[in-house]
Design goal:
The protein is mainly alpha-helical and about 250 residues long. Helix content is about 35%, strand content about 10%. The chain has 10 helices and 8 strands. A two-stranded parallel sheet has the order 1-2. Strands 3-4 form a two-stranded parallel ribbon. Strands 5-6 form a two-stranded antiparallel sheet.
Length: about 250
C-alpha cells in the first residue's frame, strides 16, 4: 500500500486535474485514462464504457462464477490481458428457463463445443474448460468468518486447503441448526412453518443483537418477500442467497 501511494503521489501531486464529461469517455479515452487509469464496470457494460473498439491493458472479471458466458465474452472482447477471479464452489449464475431453452436450441443448431455451452457454464467454468493449462492461483487465506463456520466450508468444499486467519475466542452458538418437524409445510416456494419458526423461536433468542446486524437468507424470492412482510421491520434484512454473497451480518 505504501508503494502504491508513493506511485500515485508521484503521478498526481502538484498537477492540475482536468474535469471530464460523460462524452469525453468516448471522445478522448486516452486523456481520461491518463487521469483515471482504473475503470469499474459490469461485464455487460465494459465494452461501451469508452470508445467503440477500445482495448484495455487488463480486464479483471470479479465474481466470475456468477458471470454468464455471453456478458463474459463481451468483457473478453475488449481485453489485451484477462484475469478471471472467482470460486467454482460459490454460487453460479442464474438463468431463466427461457434462456436455457434458447441456448440449447442454438447449441444444437450450430454444434457448439462443450466449453462454450451458455446454459451449463459460467465465465469461470468456461475459461477453465477451454484452457485447462491456464495458471491458477488459490487465494487460501480467509479473514471473514469465525473459524467454526469457515472450517465447515473448508472441510466440505475446499479439502482443508484454506488458511483460517480469524481466531476462535470460545464464543457460544457460533454455528447452530434448528430443525423443524417433518411435514408438508411448503406451498410452492413459500414455507410458512419455517417463517413461524424464525419469528417465534429463532429471533427472540438473538436478543439483544442489533437488528441491523441480523440477516435472514432464503433460497427463494417469494419466501424472502413473505418473510419481510411478516416481520414488518425494515431493520432486519431478508433476501435471497444470491443477494447476500459477499455481505456480512
Amino acid at each position: 500500500m505504501q508503494l502504491l501511494k508513493h506511485r500515485l503521489a508521484g503521478n498526481y501531486n502538484n498537477r492540475a486535474r482536468k474535469r471530464f464529461t460523460l462524452d469525453d469517455l468516448w471522445r478522448q479515452p486516452k486523456a481520461f485514462l491518463d487521469e483515471y487509469p482504473v475503470i469499474l464496470s459490469t461485464t455487460f457494460s465494459v465494452i461501451t464504457s469508452l470508445e467503440s473498439g477500445y482495448l484495455f491493458d487488463c480486464v479483471i472479471a470479479d465474481e466470475a462464477s456468477q458471470v454468464d458466458l455471453l456478458s463474459g465474452v463481451l468483457a473478453m472482447g475488449c481485453a489485451r490481458k484477462l484475469v478471471v477471479v472467482g470460486d467454482p464452489m460459490q454460487l453460479p449464475n442464474v438463468l431463466t428457463g427461457q434462456d436455457i431453452k434458447r441456448a440449447e436450441e442454438v447449441a444444437l443448431l450450430y454444434d457448439v463445443p462443450e466449453y462454450c455451452r451458455f446454459e451449463r457454464l459460467s465465465l469461470l467454468s468456461a475459461v477453465r474448460a477451454a484452457f485447462p493449462e491456464l495458471p491458477e492461483t488459490l487465494l487460501r487465506e480467509h479473514y471473514r468468518c469465525h473459524p467454526k463456520i469457515i472450517q465447515f466450508c473448508n472441510r466440505k468444499f475446499y479439502g482443508g486447503e484454506l488458511l483460517v486467519m480469524t481466531r476462535d475466542l470460545g464464543e457460544p452458538d457460533v454455528l447452530k441448526a434448528t430443525v423443524t418437524v417433518e411435514g408438508r409445510h411448503a406451498r410452492g416456494t413459500i414455507n410458512q412453518r419455517q417463517i413461524d419458526e424464525i419469528t417465534q423461536q429463532v429471533l427472540p433468542k438473538l436478543r439483544p443483537i442489533n437488528p441491523d446486524d441480523i440477516g435472514i437468507v432464503s433460497p427463494f424470492r417469494k419466501q424472502a418477500d413473505r418473510m419481510q412482510s411478516t416481520f414488518g421491520l425494515d431493520e432486519i434484512e431478508v433476501d435471497t442467497v444470491h443477494k447476500y454473497q459477499g455481505r456480512e451480518k
